[in-house]
């Protein structure tokens, strides 16, 4: 009787030490999107794309607009940052009183 190879199993009667010895893979499982089924057809004809822009004009316009908005936001942030560094905000000066007796303290 010929010995069967121990594919994916530890040898019988010996304790394994270190790395496990695994046999080679026998085959590949089919991907789910390519699997056959009787319930419904998988991967039917795809609908044509709705937005097609072979010239790339829409992509350039969106990129330029995004860069412009980004530059404006960075400039606004820098303006706020610089105004905070220049001089701190102070409360307004109190209005002068015509007479010392009528001014609340």
TrEMBL record:
Keyword Transmembrane belongs to the record: yes
Location of region: Disordered? 1-30
Keywords, sorted A to Z:
Membrane, Transmembrane, Transmembrane helix
Basic residues bias spans: 12-22
The transmembrane residues are 66-86
What's the protein name? Uncharacterized protein
From what organism does this protein derive?
Answer: Paractinoplanes hotanensis
């Amino acid at each position: 009787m010929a010995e069967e190879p121990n594919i994916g199993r530890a040898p019988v009667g010996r304790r394994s030490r270190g790395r496990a010895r695994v046999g080679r893979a026998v085959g590949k499982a089919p991907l789910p999107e390519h699997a056959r089924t009787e319930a419904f057809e998988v991967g039917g004809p795809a609908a044509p794309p709705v937005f097609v822009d072979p010239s790339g004009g829409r992509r350039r316009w969106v990129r330029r607009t995004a860069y412009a908005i980004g530059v404006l936001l960075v400039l606004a942030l820098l303006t706020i940052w610089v105004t905070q560094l220049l001089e701190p905000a102070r409360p307004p000066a109190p209005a002068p009183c015509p007479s010392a007796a009528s001014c609340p303290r």
